[in-house]
Amino acid sequence: MNMKNEAGSKDVPAAVREDSDLVQVLDAEGNVLPQASVPDISDRQLLELYETIKFARHFDQRAISFQRQGRLATYAPMTGQEGSQVATSLALAEQDWLFPTYREHAAKYAHGMDLASLFEPLRGYREGYAIPDDVNVMPEYIPIATQVPQAMGMAWGHKLQGKTDTAVLCHLGDGATSEGDFHEGLNFAGVFDVPAVFVCNNNQWAISVPRERQTASETIAEKAQAYGIDGVRVDGLDPLAVYKVASAALEKARNPGPGELRPTLIESVQYRFGAHTTADDPSVYRDESEEEAWRDRDPVDRIETYLYNEGILDSDLESEIQDSIEQEVSEAIETAEQTETSPDNIVEHVYEDVPARLEEQRDELNRLREKYDDGAFSEVLE
Amino acid sequence: MSSTASTQTGQNAQRLTLVEAIQDGLYTEMSQDDSVVVLGEDVGKNGGVFRATDQLYEEFGEDRVIDTPLAEAGIIGASIGLAQTGMKPVPEMQFMGFMYPAFDQIVSHAARLRSRSQGQYSVPMVIRAPYGGGIRAPEHHSESKEAFFVHEPGLKVVSPSTPYDAKGLLAASIHDPDPVIFLEPKLIYRAFREDVPTKPYEVSLSEAAVRREGSDISVYTWGAMTRPALIAAENLSQSHGIEVEVIDLRTLSPLDVATITDSFKKTGRAAIVHEAPKTGGLGAEIATTIQEEALVHQEAPIKRIAGFDAPMPLHSLEDYYLPQAVRIQDGIRETVDF
Q1: Alpha helices, DSSP H only, in B33-135?
Q2: Is the same domain home to B175 and B213?
Q3: Mind telling me how many Å the CA of A179 is from chain B's nearest CA?
Q4: Which residues of chain A lie closer than 8 angstroms to B309, CB-CB?
């Protein structure tokens, strides 16, 4: 499964260059590497992979722009990470479960979340957190690494109940590997041999703190060894390599061969091109030159070049896809902007039934709203 | 003195925001005492996500302003150990909503190492954490759970509402021999400026502040809610001639019971304003303390004006969740008209 990379090239980011066990299919430009095997997927699936990655890039650009216009609150950009997000989600079977962090917008979309619902929480509407019955996605996890033991637990539950066709895929960041929850979750995963795949999106930075300050380990994948599970390191900006590795790990989680372990920790080596969130300014803590080296390996360009080389994509189809993406995102924003809510939402869904004391609190608020009207509540608190 | 505070009003004071006063307080204390170290996520090179540690890394270097791995339990556990070596750690929890992984280290150990060692060991440290809502932050970023820490013996809990107090309370907290939870109301981090002395000074951890004198009702509050309480008091004075005494508790644990009860004995009425959920919030403790100490002076039921017993909503509804001046005024009138 391991491919030789382009060791020695001075333009290759150190995190990619230094590891000879990094799985890659495409070179930096998008040409298939000499000894690489391309994942066995149809042209239609390849186009879906491409379209969803392109969609994610456009979504990201629009979201940042809307945030700047004051139409969205704090947003966590994903440019650079779309290839890995989409490839891991497309490797999932429909019955598999996804545990996303606050940055996995594209992963959620690719596993069935409605587009408008991704925008609604960013506009302050909790309604967008609603998850349809037929979509196996957990709510986004904001506190770091908290999803890891939970994903382990769900995978464990499936195994205990004999649901061996269902795997769980859990995203986390490089910063998450420093938290206790990460270690506890992976340790359980190994002890109980659960059908879970943990994808560490190693984007090199936990806000301002570099990967080197999260761990003295040479790689994150090697941590798997301590928990008795499999660890694999993949070029996270190479969507074909990520798809290949994630598919293999998910298949192994469902149907381990003799002596094989169900759980896998995938270190998807990538880069966060933008800020941590729209409230962050990366120029304070890192050099632009670092970003440039990674820019040369952009996942969108690489998959595009590959599809052109294979004759699956041409410029007409490319612009057709782009137009349809732009329209889809615009419509989703319009839908999200029409969302309305009521202060009653504050008390809803806290418990299955609203407790009497909470009902009194709601009634008190509604009494004041009638007496003073809503404008009185939008006075700036400062 | 401080490298960020540039607006000079004279030789001895600067016009600072609350977050600048905290930065200035850290700068002042670190300059005076080499044992004071700042540690946490993004506190170093980035200067803190709210800039509270801005320029400290450049000034004091990476051994005293330390970017740690992303691990709250690790940061607090490590700080407890650092404190045993004579250092004075000032760990930052990036948001109060992310403090829970460190909860075990705080309540099981920082709070009670003194009692567990019968006074042999102590944990002089100050855990700083931005808290509260109103800044359109994402989920989990608007927590106001001071009651968790007030409930834990062995901890002191502090929350400033002005830049002057922020610097003085921080100094007193750093000089305190016991662990202090220093809760910073991020809604008012940059809301206004006031004169903050450049020289070192302390604001005592044992005294509440009377922000406004009044004879009709006592309003007890702290942190970001002090301002809407003062606005409500002014409005009611002008519109209804109701004179509200506004008490800013400043230190939430231990409570300044004398100031609380003295005010109540004068007014006979009380309202408590906090943004934390109503049930089990600090308001309940204050109301009960008043009942225990000054029941015979009571002329009306004590009113709590608080957040809902529900998670803080996303920003489209947070103005309804947080006690606004209008809610505070209404609650005060209800109590005064009883």
Answers
A1: 56-60, 72-84, 103-104, 113-116
A2: no
A3: 5
A4: 350, 355, 357-358, 361
Whole-prediction pTM:
0.93
* Residue B262, number of CB atoms within 10 A of its CB: 16
- Give B4 to chain A, closest Cα distance, Å: 15
Which of A209, A369, A381 minimises the CB distance to B228? A381
The answer to whether the Cβ–Cβ distance between B314 and A121 falls below 8 Å is: yes
Task: Give the tens place of pLDDT for each residue, B200-212.
Answer: 999 999 999 999 9
Residues B166 and B28 in one domain: yes
Cβ neighbours of A341 in B, within 8 Å: 316-317
**Cβ pair B92, B52 in contact under 8 A:** yes
For chain B, the first-to-last Cα distance in angstroms comes to 53
Contact B46 A361 (CB under 8 A): no
Active site residue A285: yes
Catalytic residue among B141, B240, B274, B297: B141
Residue type at position A171 = H
Q: How is residue B192 annotated by DSSP?
A: -
Residue B219 neighbours by CB distance under 10 Å: 31
Domain that holds residue B255: 207-335
All residues of chain B having their beta carbon less than 8 Å from the beta carbon of residue A149 are none
* Closest by CA position to B244, among listed B236, B256, B252: B236
Distance between CA atoms of residues A98 and A34, nearest Å: 33
**Residue the block writes with tokens 């000879």:** A20
Decide if A358 and B309 are in contact by the 8 Å CB cutoff. yes
**Cα–Cα distance for residue pair A262/B270, rounded to 1 Å:** 61
Residues of B in Cβ contact (< 8 Å) with A175: 69-70
Sign of the C-alpha dihedral computed for residues A58, A61, A67 and A69 taken in this order? negative
What is the C-alpha separation between A357 and A364, in angstroms, rounded? 11
Q: Are B237 and B267 in contact (CB under 8 A)?
A: no
Q: Which of residues 253-292 of A touch B (CB under 8 A)?
A: 279-280, 284-285
Q: Supply B165's token pair.
A: 């107090």
Q: Contact B315/A124, CB-based, under 8 Å? A: yes
Nearest CA in chain B to A127: B314
Residue type, A345: N
Q: Which residue has the tokens 């968790």?
A: B148
Q: What is the pLDDT of residues A64-120, one digit of tens each?
A: 999 999 999 999 999 999 999 999 999 999 999 999 999 999 999 999 999 999 999
Listed residues B195, B228, B261: the one ending a domain:
B195
Task: Say yes or no for a CB contact (<8 Å) between A179 and B316.
Answer: no
Q: Find the catalytic residue in A272, A297, A302, A306.
A: A272
| Strand, helix or coil for residue B191 | coil
- For residues B227 and B298, membership in a common domain is answered with yes
List beta partners, residue A161.
none
For residue B254, being part of any structural domain is answered with yes
What's the confidence (pLDDT) of residue B203?
98
Give the burial class of A355: count Cβ atoms within 10 A of its Cβ; 0-12 exposed, 13-18 middle, 19 or more buried.
middle
Q: Are residues B17 and B143 in the same domain?
A: yes
If contacts are CB pairs under 8 Å, which of residues 48-107 in chain A contact chain B? 73-74, 102
Query: CA B257, B263, B267, B269: dihedral to nearest 10 degrees?
Result: -30
CB-CB contact of A99 with A171 (8 Å): yes
- The total number of structural domains in chain B stands at 2
Helix or strand or coil: residue A305?
helix
Please report, for the domain that includes residue B326, its CATH number: 3.40.50.920
Rg (CA), chain B: 20
Burial code (b: 16+ CB inside 10 Å, e: under 16) for A268-295 equals bbbbbbbbbbbbbebeebbeeebbebbe
A127 touches chain B (CB under 8 A): no
* Backbone φ and ψ of A298, nearest 5°: -50, 125
Quote ipTM for the complex: 0.91
A297 is known as an active-site residue: no
The mean pLDDT value of chain B amounts to 96
User: Minimal CA–CA distance to B194: which of B239, B240, B163, B158?
Assistant: B163
